Amino acid sequence: MAIALICAAAAVPATAQNWTTISASNITDAAGNKLAAGQICFLGTDQNNVAINFAIGGGGQVLKRPVCATVTNGAIAAGFQVPNPANTSPAGVLYHVYVRDTSSGQIVVDYKLVRFTGTAWDLDNYQPSSTTVPPPPTPASVTGPLNVNGNMSISGTSSLGVTTASSLTASSVNQRRFAPFWCNSLGTFDESCWTNAIATLSSAGGEVDGGPYTYTFNAMLTVAGSGIVLRGNPQPMSTGSIYGSTRITTANGANLSALIKVTGAGDVVKNLTLDGNKTNETCAGTEANLLYSDSARPEIEDVSTQNSCGAGWEIYSSSTSGANANLSGGGNVINTMSLNNAGSACLVKNTADTSLRGDQCENSTVGLELDSAPTTRVIGGDLGGNARQGLYCHGIANFGSFGGIITGVQFGNNGGSGTDDILINGWDEAAAAHNACVGFSIAANEFISSPTRAAASWSAIHLQDSADNAVTGNRIGVASGATSYKYDIQISQSAATEGRDTVSANRLSGWVTQAILPQTNTFLGGNATGDADQPELYSSMVVQTGTPGNVALTAKAAAGQAADVFDVVDANDDQLARVNAAGVIYSHFLDSMSGTACALSGFLRLCDGDTVVGHHAVDVQVLTVNAANQTQVGDSHGVLLAGPTAIGSGSAISSSGVIDQYIGDITTTAAASDPLTVPNLTNSSRCHAQAANAVAASLTGVYIVEAANTVTLYHSATAGGDFHVFCAMQ
After folding, report:
1. What are phi and psi of 645, to 5 degrees?
2. How far is CA 602 from CA 598, 599, 605, in A?
3. Residue 484 has pLDDT above 90, yes or no
4. Percent of the chain scored above 90 by pLDDT?
5. Nearest of 650, 606, 656 to residue 631 by alpha carbon
């Protein structure tokens, strides 16, 4: 018989030991009325009642979500199983067990930190215990978070940051809450879940975990305490419906100023997806999905925010002067995704010393807006696909955006005509003065243009009324199917003052329409188009000034590099000249520089077919060189030499009016005089006639009278005399 029992036990499959069958037949109210219809759910947790992932005995991973079975007339449907805690990894997983009345939606049974082992567990026989933490095993170690209610005494050393015998008060130990357990109505995921959970944290702060759920907010969640972490499930950076993400969305018609507003110090928001639901809102008064307002040292990490009526996320300080200035300064934004927002995807306002690393601010009105945001550091990321600029800096001079760093960022597919990938605007909007955005380092960024803008209507980098910027090592290209830039790098100034900007070692697209009119003090060096075939044909950058005459043309190559290839244009974008890598000037228009000494020697080269053109009402050819190396001066409009002119080694002729030239012929009639029409002749002109046949030579009384446009030959009345007429037109 003993042998038979042993064999029977051995016949139980090993995998069956990894599961516990759950049963109950008497789920009732206090009067003995059985629950007619309901649902029982089990959620695996740690000792803090926080949902966890764990491994099933025999293999397999458990998701952080409840598993449920039907309850009918007080009984659980047969065959309901959960992983056996005795064989899980980590061992001893706890369960949050709750029963919902499906007719009312009310939670009618709610047991936390439930312990059991074995292949079967009967809820009818469960004895709830008030003890939430068992005595630690020997030696005294506890696996997993340890929840302590009240004070904890420590003898000897500790890894809690206390190195001598001491004690910790309950408020000094970080706390964690699982938001779904704190909802006003269990199972209705809204802002109350978070508000209630935050309210239970101590003044030392703590963490609230949203779990793998979608929350619909009808009111804004305000986080006023310090040291609070709001987190969701880690997820790939995406705005799709990947399971496991913690999503918070605005309820239809709620029109919230923000989904989450943080005003405490040192608060962190991470691993959340925020959706402003802008298509179902009136968009009145919305600031941002996530708003840090006067919140010291804000931190946003791995947050995806989308569809806001305002900005995706915003870091804001209410004052730029006095004791309350820059209250949200010193923030860190790491690996966020913000897109499809009606305002800016990412916004820093009235706030200094913010660090952005690997953020994607896309498909909104502006990618990253820096509004009075000095010493902002933008490292890596993607600022593309926006209706206007990828990055826009502006603000006020007394708290301007100075000393910023933009490096390792990709720009592409940004907005409509007339807007730039980067616009650094130094104009002070409040004081109508310059230098609101100055002193930027713009280095090692990638620009790939856009197929959505009109060609030659915008720039990759535009410094407007700014100063003291360094633009270096950027790669500016035009991707397949994209339109060309008007300028790769544009520096424009609406007033006379301009600090020194340095533009060097940039790899330029070559596909631009105009390039350089350098501003005084602008240093250019070592920039190249990257076009090996005809590098001299393409322009690179432009500097403009609004003050006539206040232009100093300077072009210098960086040490060890060839001279720049650039175009010279005026303030109207009229091209003046082009300089190639060999330093040869190809002139498009020559202008006088009266009073300027010629300090450098050089030459102007016209190649086969090149032409110097003048213009009044129409283009007039001044000078050209033909294929036979002949120099041709003027065209059918004529040539006027304004001063004395010498040919060869002869004496200078002061006026063409003294040159005797053939005008035409007169054949006499039987009359005593015959006229000849000569355009531009005056009575001051001097003419004479030369006999051309015997009849003419035999005539007597021959003389000429000059009048306006006419010369008249007087002679004896004999027909048939031929005369050649010559005049000095005077």
Report:
1. -130, 130
2. 10, 10, 10
3. no
4. 51
5. 606
- Specify the pLDDT at position 379: 97
Q: Residue 94 and residue 112: Cα distance in Å, rounded?
A: 8
Q: What is the DSSP letter of 135?
A: P
Lowest mean pLDDT among 77-81, 191-195, 415-419, 683-687: 415-419
E-strand ranges in 332-429 read: 332-334, 337-339, 346-349, 355-362, 368-371, 377-382, 391-395, 401-402, 405-407, 410-411, 422-428
Give pLDDT, residue 604: 58
* CA-to-CA separations, 611 to 178, 220, 618, 694, in angstroms, rounded: 79, 70, 15, 50
Q: Are 557 and 505 in contact (CB under 8 A)?
A: no
Look up the pTM and report it: 0.58
Q: Which residues, at least 6 apart from 470, have a Cβ–Cβ distance to it below 8 Å?
A: 440, 441, 442, 443, 501, 502, 504
555 — pLDDT class (breaks 50, 70, 90): very low
Which among 86, 91, 74, 88 is positioned nearest to 38, based on CA atoms?
A: 74
Checking DSSP bridges between strand 311-316 and strand 288-293, what pairing results, if any? parallel
Tell me which of 448 and 569 has the higher pLDDT.
448
Going by pLDDT thresholds of 50, 70 and 90, the confidence category of residue 552 is very low
Neighbours of 152 (CB within 10 A): 16
Q: At residue 193, does pLDDT exceed 60?
A: yes
Domains for the chain: give ranges and CATH numbers. Answer: 13-125 (2.60.40.2190), 656-728 (no CATH)
Element (H, E) at 3: helix 2-10
**Cα dist. 294→225, 297, 618 in Å?**
12, 9, 64
What is the rounded distance in angstroms from the CA atom of residue 645 to the CA atom of residue 639? 13
Of the two residues 420 and 105, the one the predictor is more confident about is 420
Give pLDDT tens digits for 394-443: 988 777 678 899 999 999 998 775 689 999 998 886 777 776 888 999 99
- Nearest alpha-carbon partner for 519 in 554, 488, 543: 543
User: What is the rounded CA–CA span in Å between residue 142 and residue 615?
Assistant: 91
Three-state DSSP state, 423: strand
675: three-class secondary structure by DSSP: strand
Contact (Cβ atoms closer than 8 angstroms) between residue 93 and residue 52: yes
Phi and psi angles of residue 5, each rounded to the nearest 5 degrees, phi first = -65, -40
Residue (of 513, 520, 560, 518) closest to 538 by Cα position: 513
